[in-house]
Each structure stands twice: as C-alpha cells, then as structure tokens.
Amino acid sequence: MENNNDVVEIYTDGACSGNPGPGGWAAVLLYKRTKKEISGFEENTTNNKMELKAALEALKALKRPCKVNLYSDSSYLINAFNQGWIEKWQKNNWLKSDKTPVENQDLWKELLEVLKKHQVNWIKVKGHADNEYNNLCDKLATDEIKKNTKKS
C-alpha cells in the first residue's frame, strides 16, 4: 500500500486582471511537515497561461522525481490531462478538433518535459470555495498583480 507521506501535495492557481492583462500565478507545495509558497507575475498574459505557469513552476520547484497530487480549479489544465486532450493535440500536430492551433503550446510542451520526471495525479477543486490552499494560491496570485501594478 502506498504511503501518503511519499506524495507531494501541490495546489496551484492563476489570476489575470483583464484577459489579456497583468497576471499572477501561485503554488503551495506540501511535503510531510514542509510548506513552500511560490508565486510570480507577468505583465501581459491570460488566465489560462497563468494557470499553466503555476503548475509548471510548482513541478519545476521539485528537487527530485516525485509522486504528486496536483490540485487546480482550472478545467483547462486538469481536463487536458484527465480527458486526454493533450494526447489528441500531440497526435494532431498541436491542432484542436476545429483544426486551429492549440494555444500556449510553448507552456504545454515545457510542462510535458517536466512531467517526464514526475508521476502526477491531476485533481480538480472548486475555485473560490472552502479549500484553504486553493484560496491561499488565489490570494498569492492576485497579490502578485496588485504588487506589480501599483501606480507610481
């Protein structure tokens, strides 16, 4: 039986003020008794990019191959893996079913590279609900926007 102490729990969120507009991403990584918060900002971006960036940066922060439970309120991110979108996109040369290019290919491809090192279980959580760590990620991401867009 798998010991849950060997699993890293990661919560991620992205935020955007306007879409596109200034955006923030954040992640909370939990392992045993350690909690690490990371976040960042981009000047001109989209909400989907920030959701992807949060997951990407969280996984890149891991120092060795890990089993991960990654929680996100982003259907875009979670469904890409749990509903097989990513495999279809790759098979169709990064075209969606309507034959238009998949957005954010650079981030998806970078995420796929990072995923070669880890075993990730993608878990959808309800956004802006009662999930402590999802709410913390949302606050960290929106704080990045506020901190970086203050009028001087």
From TrEMBL:
Principal location: cytoplasm
Keyword tags: Cytoplasm, Endonuclease, Hydrolase, Magnesium, Metal-binding, Nuclease
GO BP annotations listed: DNA replication, removal of RNA primer
Pfam family, one: RNase_H
Domain RNase H type-1: 4-146
CDD domains: RNase_HI_prokaryote_like
Coiled coil: none
Localization per Swiss-Prot or TrEMBL: Cytoplasm
EC number: 3.1.26.4
Keyword Transcription: no
Cofactor info, note text: Binds 1 Mg(2+) ion per subunit. May bind a second metal ion at a regulatory site, or after substrate binding.
Reactions the enzyme catalyzes: Endonucleolytic cleavage to 5'-phosphomonoester
Needed cofactors: Mg(2+)
GO molecular function terms noted in the UniProt entry: magnesium ion binding; nucleic acid binding; RNA-DNA hybrid ribonuclease activity
Gene Ontology CC: cytoplasm
Signal peptide: none
InterPro entries in alphabetical order: RNase_H, RNaseH-like_sf, RNaseH_domain, RNaseH_sf, RNaseHI
Positions of Mg(2+) 1 binding: D13, E51, D73
Residues binding Mg(2+) 2, per UniProt: D13, D138
Gene3D superfamilies assigned to the protein according to its UniProt record, in alphabetical order: Ribonuclease H-like superfamily/Ribonuclease H
Function: Endonuclease that specifically degrades the RNA of RNA-DNA hybrids.
Family label: Belongs to the RNase H family.
Quaternary context: Monomer.
Protein name: Ribonuclease H
Protein source organism: Thermoanaerobacter kivui
